[in-house]
From TrEMBL:
It comes from the Bacteria. Gene3D superfamilies: 2.20.25.10, SH3 Domains (2.30.30.40). Belongs to the YjdM family. This is Alkylphosphonate utilization protein. Pfam families: YjdM, Zn_Ribbon_YjdM. Residues 3-32 form the Protein YjdM N-terminal domain. Transmembrane segments: none annotated. Residues 46-112 form the Protein YjdM C-terminal domain.
Length: 115
């Protein structure tokens, strides 16, 4: 069983040592084993459509009508979404919208609620 950490760029578990460096065979990312892999996650800041940083528990407002894939429903402009969670991935906001249910949103389609 390998005790090497997963790739910080793509999360692959198939990393290997090459001299003093660790290498990911899937994305070709190279890094030093002394580097803290958590620093990439700590420095990642999710920002809304206006450039404001978002955090877990924030309330956001949808700035564009969003069609829901596989449904005829639409999330309308101005819909307020409370208590968001920031997650990794393309859709970086995990939330629950009243009347629709749990879904994931892209941060570029929301703005932080001022009040």
């Amino acid at each position: 069983m390998s005790t090497l950490p997963p790739c910080p760029a793509c999360g692959s578990e198939f990393t290997y040592e090459d001299g003093l460096m660790l290498v990911c065979p899937e994305c070709a990312h190279e890094w030093s084993p002394g580097e803290a892999t958590e620093t990439a996650e700590e420095t990642r800041v999710v920002r809304d459509a206006n450039g404001n940083p978002l955090a877990d528990g924030d309330t956001v407002i949808v700035v564009k009508d969003l069609k829901i894939k596989g449904s005829s429903s639409v999330v309308k402009v101005g819909t307020k979404v409370r208590n968001i969670r920031i997650v990794d991935g393309d859709h970086d906001i995990d939330c629950r919208i009243d009347g629709i249910g749990a879904m994931k949103l892209k941060s570029e389609f929301v703005k932080k609620d001022a009040g």
